[in-house]
Amino acid sequence: MVRMGEVWTNTGSALASLVFIYTIFERFFPYRLREHFEPLAQRLIGFIYPYIQITFHEYSGERFTRSDAYDAIQSYLSKDSSSRAKKLTANTIKGNKSIVLSMDDHEEITDEFEGVKVWWQSKKHQSESRAISFYPKADDSRFYMLKFHRRDRKVITEKYLDHVMSEGKTIEVKNRERKLYSNNPSQNWSGYKQTKWSHVTFEHPATFDTLAMEYKKKEEIKNDLIKFSNSKDYYKKIGKAWKRGYLLYGPPGTGKSTMIAAMANFLEYDVYDLELTTVKDNTELRRLLIETSGKSIIVIEDIDCSLDLTGQRKQKKEEEEDKDETSPIEKQMKKDQGENKGSKVTLSGLLNFIDGLWSACGGERIIVFTTNFIDKLDPALIRKGRMDKHIEMSYCGFEAFKVLAENYLDAKEEDDNELFDEIKRLLEVEEIKMTPADVGENLLRKSEVETKEFCLKRLIEALKEEKEEAKRRIEDEEKKKKEEEETKRKKREEKKIKKEENEENEIALKEI
Ligand SMILES: Nc1ncnc2c1ncn2[C@@H]1O[C@H](COP(=O)(O)OP(=O)(O)OP(=O)(O)O)[C@@H](O)[C@H]1O
Ligand SMILES: [Mg+2]
Fold first, then answer.
1. pLDDT by residue (tens digit) across 485-512?
2. Keywords on this record (predicted)?
3. Per-residue pLDDT for 339 more than 50?
């Protein structure tokens, strides 16, 4: 058995020999000769050790900015490491909804890509500095090391790294806590920590499953969304910015806002709820757009109320009126008043927002407008290409009712046949119009005593009442119409009588 003392003696003498050889080499080989020798040495090393290593540090550039690449790799490896690495660490990443499990320091896992094997290692540098640091991260710098055979260099540098980044980012997006943003009034844009958008966590529970709508229409919208979100290369190929516009229109309570929430949950996108009336002008609108991130839905609700489409024309009229005024002070006062009136966003500003050059920055986006009155909107705003898909949100049909009945009461057609038949007759034969919001309100259990049958019967009563109400409304309208016609007719007659009287008077006067 070799004794410990002998091992140390042998190692010591080997090291001494190496130092001696290196000193001889440095002294007797001139610099120029060494220059030739070094590549040779590198090749020799490469022959013995054919692997290449790349390191990805946790903090890059400035000391305390976390590297995006490190985060993406961490997310990418988390899917494999949680099942394959023996030692794991649990990290909470800011903005993530769940804990990310990644391999612990000095663990190694392998990965395969297009038949190429790579090794990933998580490592840690421990700083030798003994100085007390306020920053816990300052002393330990972590990094990932990627090792691969040099023959695979091309695949790794040209394809694999891109694959890791994009997969990692997709996982990051999936894990992140989604946000609902709303724009701040511009007077709050400056100052400490003030931003253009404020946010809260987006937690709307609506999904396409809970949305009351015909199955076919729902599937069509879902397919459209999937196709859009997977079409990065296609949009690039056809030279179009990667965005899609939806116009949701229909009466109040038909589910326009609910549909937006369902879309956001389906695609796992953030939502930017843009309140146009607080945006001062077109420049501000553009600045808000630049601050939105990719994978988001930008929503402008009630577009017909948000924007005065005749604004530009009004402005011109005001300018013409200004010409007559003599005092420049008065002019300035009027101008100032005009500026404080509210939003000066114009139609062209909004069109620029939707498909100007700026709209292409920052990844995929969906823009959704909602309105109760589609006819009020300028055709330029809603033409195809700007608003690619127009979706009508309508009164509750039988199919939509079935979705609500199942969601609210667990009621199915086969179980409650008679009540369902009656509701079908009322909705389809009698064509009673009720919004899904009102149908839902009737189906909602307000106490324990309200059974399924009770709620369905309440809906039937409400539908019948709605029919009577609609009848009354029509009768009232007809009555009003008739009254208006009657007053018009009376006015015409009075005019005629007056005219005849005048003519008679004129004749009488002439005769005198
Ligand atoms: N199609 C629907 N499916 C499921 N629930 C719906 C539907 N439509 C309306 N609701 C219910 O009615 C409520 C109001 O709906 P929502 O706010 O989406 O209507 P809206 O069309 O946006 O109305 P408005 O034009 O007034 O903004 C929602 O909370 C939702 O529960
Ligand atoms: Mg709404």
1. 999 999 999 999 999 989 888 888 888 7
2. ATP-binding, Hydrolase, Magnesium, Membrane, Nucleotide-binding, Transmembrane, Transmembrane helix
3. no
Kindly report the average pLDDT of the chain as a whole number.
81
Domain membership flag for residue 35:
no
Same domain, 118 and 144: yes
Query: Measuring CA to CA, which residue among 435, 455, 454 is closest to residue 394?
Result: 435
Q: What is the CATH number of the domain that holds 250?
A: 3.40.50.300
Nearest Cα neighbor of 407 from 370, 377, 375, 444 is 444
Say yes or no: CB of residue 407 within 6 Å of ligand 1. no
Q: Which of 333, 357, 392 is the C-terminal boundary of a domain?
A: 392
Do 170 and 185 lie in a common domain?
no
Does 466 have pLDDT greater than 70?
A: yes
Compute the distance between CA of residue 246 and CA of residue 142 in angstroms, rounded to an integer. Answer: 45
* Closest ligand to Cα 217: 1
Q: For the chain, give the percent of residues with pLDDT over 70.
A: 76
**Judgement on whether residues 364 and 269 belong to the same structural domain of the protein:** yes
Contacts of 424 by beta carbon, 8 Å cutoff, 6+ apart: 398
- Is 30 a domain residue? no
CA–CA separation, 80 vs 109, rounded Å?
8
Q: Give the chain's domain count.
A: 3
List pLDDT tens digits, range 142-196.
889 999 998 999 999 999 999 999 898 888 877 888 899 999 887 767 665 568 8
Query: What 3-state DSSP class applies to 311?
Result: helix
How far is residue 71 from each of residues 75, 91, 114, 167, 172, measured CA to CA in Å?
Answer: 6, 11, 23, 12, 8
Which residue has the least CA distance to atom 10 on ligand 1? 437
Q: Tell me how far the alpha carbon of residue 396 lies from the centroid of ligand 1, in angstroms.
A: 11
The pLDDT of residue 348 = 82
Residue 308 has a pLDDT of: 62
Q: Which amino acid is at 351?
A: L
- Identify the three-state secondary structure at position 120: strand
pLDDT of amino acid 7:
47
The ipTM value here is 0.98
Half-sphere exposure at residue 90, Cβ-oriented, CA atoms within 13 angstroms:
2
How many angstroms separate the alpha carbon of residue 301 from the centre of ligand 2?
7
Q: Is residue 398 part of a domain?
A: no
Any domain includes 45: no
Residue 12 C-alpha from the chain's centroid: 65
Question: Angle CA(216)–CA(217)–CA(222) in degrees, nearest 5?
Answer: 100
Predicted pLDDT of residue 4: 46
* Ligand 1 centroid distance, CA of 407 (Å): 14
Looking at the fold, whether 69 and 210 belong to one and the same domain comes out as: no
Q: Which residues surround ligand 2, an ion (CB under 5 A)?
A: 256-257
Domain that includes residue 512, residue range: 410-512
Q: What is the Cβ-side half-sphere exposure of residue 311, based on CA atoms within 13 angstroms? A: 22
Question: What tens digit of pLDDT does each residue of 231-262 get?
Answer: 888 888 888 888 899 999 999 999 999 999 99
